[in-house]
Specification:
Layout: E1 2-4, H1 7-10, E2 27-30, H2 34-47, E3 51-54, E4 70-73, E5 84-87, E6 90-96, H3 101-110, E7 113-114, H4 126-131, H5 139-142, E8 149-155, E9 161-165, E10 176-181, E11 185-190, H6 214-218, E12 227-237, E13 241-248, H7 252-263, E14 273-277, H8 279-288, E15 299-306, H9 311-324, E16 333-335, H10 338-360, E17 367-368, H11 378-391, E18 396-401, E19 406-411, H12 416-435, H13 454-473, H14 487-491
Parallel strand pairs: 2-4, 3-4
Antiparallel strand pairs: 1-2, 5-6, 6-12, 7-12, 8-9, 8-12, 10-11, 13-15, 13-16, 14-15, 14-18, 17-19, 18-19
Helix pairs in contact: 8-10, 11-12
The structure holds flavin-adenine dinucleotide.
Flavin-adenine dinucleotide (FAD) is lined by residues 16-17, 52-60, 63-64, 74, 97, 119-121, 124-125, 127-129, 131-132, 134-136, 222-223, 227-228, 352, 443-444, 480, 483.
């Protein structure tokens, strides 16, 4: 096992994409086998050590940044197996927790299979995507990572290695689980009794549903309940052909109507991705792509899976829908081959690059949201974001996963006063989103940055129940402390 402690080689482990700068660590361990990782956790309580698990640092919430203690990096546990067909149209693929998502997707594709989860950032580790239940554009049709995990091997905070296979550990009628483990002995714990929101994407706090699988508790637990060292991923056949399109709308009503019509589609008729660009986002994109039409009220990007035989019919139906909702057919950009689709991908991905370039000319960092609401309340969310930003004269863009009623608002402050005002507004937005039945985080998770706000969503009782669950699995509080559950709930059992 590699151990690093000189400041230069551990600096990168104190960062992710959150701009959090207060991280510190005594050193970084890089295990080369799950057993080495288990050994570290087994001795943690006796050595009074705390560990923070580290993926590839693309997280946005400071979750992998240690606030003292040691880091365990997953980077050497990166093996990727070959897809193994288990039934017609189904395959499984065994990977280690530190395998890179991009590599996993390529390996699946090379064998004619498809792993649907696709956070925009592909340079992340599979273990992190499972522990964060990551999702992305294609979640509109395929759901988040959770739905594509067949089994996980997890190292629990006291050092036990546990394999969990979907369907084998359902919760008891009162939401309890019981495990008999070689090191930890008998563990009994209960799911929090809060109700999760009725959003189609949700990634805030422990997953809790009646009769759910134990596997689903670990998925999305942000590394607070164990380290995912291995997983079996579910693969489906690689789609034969894809229709990609960017459709511009002269009126917002048409754009929203088009979106709502597509939300009702099921199965093959449902696009796998349905994304939004507001006029301000299009203005940023126009800096690099001057042919982006001007004067529109926004654009929708979609991806629809099809076959050579169905492609013409699917295109006809798509154009009919665009016409019905007043989309600008002439200006729409349709990409049917890989090369054109790559150009379209470059177009979409140049948005964060343009925003970052703009931010480099300013002194303040952006304030961004990752909240979602039930689809029926989406119009209210959009109106709330927009009217507040217009009232305060902010530079802002709204873009993202409109299919799931989950758009990202980025406020780009031009000075410190605007930054402070944007932070205050963020608090107002939390209140509004919760009032609309939404979630504090749809995909990026809670980590350290949003931990102070989780109480607004679940109340004190919800956080007490989360803390009790955490303490049952991690009684010496050694793993990923500071993520998700505010420290006072873990340390003060009376709170
Ligand atoms: C430009 C950009 C676009 C993004 N787009 C999306 C998107 O579309 N959808 C989306 O969901 N996210 C997105 N993200 C967020 C991010 O990519 C994901 O959260 C990703 O899962 C983080 O992976 P990582 O390996 O970088 O993890 P890190 O940032 O290193 O760690 C994230 C968390 O995972 C924990 N962890 C790491 N490995 C393990 C393990 N093996 N077992 C248990 N816990 C572990 C860490 O302790 C930490 O809490 C985006 C980020 C960027 C920068």
């Amino acid at each position: 096992m590699i151990h690093k402690e000189d400041p230069a080689s551990i600096q990168s482990y104190l960062e992710d994409t959150s701009n959090l700068t207060t991280g510190r660590t005594e050193g970084v361990f890089i295990p080369e086998t799950p057993e080495e990782l288990a050994g570290l956790l087994r001795e943690a309580a006796a050595l009074k050590r705390r560990y923070t698990l580290s993926g590839n640092g693309t997280g946005t919430t400071g979750a992998r940044i240690p606030m003292g203690g040691h880091v365990i990096s997953m980077e050497r546990l990166k093996a990727v197996g070959e897809p193994r067909q288990t039934a017609p149209g189904h395959a499984l693929m065994r990977v280690q927790g530190g395998a890179m998502l991009e590599e996993v997707q390529k390996r699946a594709e090379a064998a004619g299979w498809f792993y649907p989860p696709d956070p925009t950032e592909k340079l992340c580790f599979i273990g992190s995507t499972i522990s964060n239940n990551s999702s992305g554009a294609r979640s509109f049709r395929y759901g988040p990572t959770r739905e594509h995990v067949e089994s996980i091997t997890i190292v629990l905070p006291q050092g036990d290695i546990l394999e969990l296979r979907r369907g084998e550990h359902p919760a008891g009628p009162d939401g309890t689980f019981r495990l008999e483990l070689p090191l930890a002995g008998t563990l009994e714990f209960r799911l929090p009794r809060y109700r999760m929101p009725e959003t189609t994407k949700h990634n805030a706090g422990y997953y809790s549903r009646e009769g759910m699988d134990l596997l689903d508790l670990f998925i999305g637990s942000e590394g607070t309940l164990g380290a995912i060292v291995e997983a079996e991923l579910r693969l489906i056949p690689l789609p034969e052909r894809i229709i990609s399109a960017i459709i511009y709308f002269p009126e917002e009503e048409g754009l929203l109507g088009f979106t709502e019509a597509l939300r009702k589609k099921e199965g093959r008729a449902r696009p796998r991705a349905l994304e939004y660009f507001d006029p301000n986002a299009l203005a940023f994109l126009r800096r690099r792509h001057p042919d982006t039409p001007e004067g529109t009220k926004g654009a929708i990007f979609l991806e629809l899976e099809t076959t050579a035989g169905d492609e013409d019919g699917d295109l006809e139906r798509l154009f009919a829908l665009i016409e019905e909702h007043g989309g600008l057919e002439e200006d729409s950009w349709i990409a049917l081959d890989r090369e054109e689709q790559d150009r379209m991908r470059e177009f979409r991905h140049s948005l964060p690059l343009q925003v970052n370039e703009w931010l480099r000319t300013q002194k303040e960092s952006k304030v961004s949201t990752d909240m979602a609401v039930p689809p029926a309340r989406f119009r209210e969310l959009l109106e709330t974001y927009r009217s507040a930003c217009e009232r305060l004269g902010f530079v802002y863009i709204i873009f993202g996963h409109i299919g799931d009623a989950h758009v990202h608002l980025n406020i780009l402050p031009r000075n410190h006063e605007e930054f402070v005002a944007a932070k205050e507004l963020y608090l107002e937005f939390i209140g509004k989103v919760l009032e609309l039945g939404g979630t504090l985080s749809a995909e990026h998770g809670i980590g350290k940055l949003k931990s102070p706000y989780l109480e607004a969503m679940y109340g004190r009782e919800g956080l007490r129940e989360m803390a009790a669950l955490k303490r049952a699995l991690d009684p010496a509080l050694v793993l990923n402390i500071g993520n998700m559950i505010p420290a006072e709930y873990l340390e003060n059992q009376q709170r």
